[in-house]
Design a protein that fits this description.
Structural class: mainly beta
Strand content: 35-45%
CATH superfamily: Hypothetical protein, similar to alpha- acetolactate decarboxylase, domain 2
Oligomer: single chain
CATH topology: 60s Ribosomal Protein L30, Chain: A
CATH class: Alpha Beta
Distance between the termini: 38 Å
Helix content: under 10%
Number of helices: 0
CATH architecture: 2-Layer Sandwich
Order of helices and strands: EEEEE
Shape: elongated
C-alpha cells in the first residue's frame, strides 16, 4: 500500500504523556483507497514525513460534556 495522506497531531495528556492522533489514507495496488484512524503501521522501504511545529505545546483534556478527549486551546 502507498500512503496517500497522513495527518494528525502530537499532544500532551493531563498526566504529561505524549498522545498521537493520526488519520491516514492508503492506496491499494488496484487504485482503491482505505482511510481512517492510524493505529499502527510498518513502513518499508521508506516514508517521507514533514512535521510542522505549533507555536506552543498542544494539551488534551477530557471534555465532561461530550466525554471526548479534545485539544484544550485555553491551555
Amino acid at each position: 500500500m502507498e500512503v496517500v495522506s497522513l495527518i494528525g497531531e502530537f499532544a500532551l495528556t493531563d498526566d504529561g504523556k505524549p498522545a498521537i492522533h493520526a488519520h491516514a489514507d492508503l492506496s491499494r495496488s488496484d487504485g482503491s483507497v482505505l482511510g481512517g484512524h492510524l493505529i499502527g503501521a510498518c513502513v518499508r522501504p521508506t516514508l517521507e514525513v514533514v512535521l510542522t511545529q505549533s507555536p506552543r505545546h498542544l494539551h488534551k483534556r477530557r471534555d465532561p460534556e461530550s466525554g471526548l478527549v479534545l485539544i484544550d486551546l485555553a491551555q
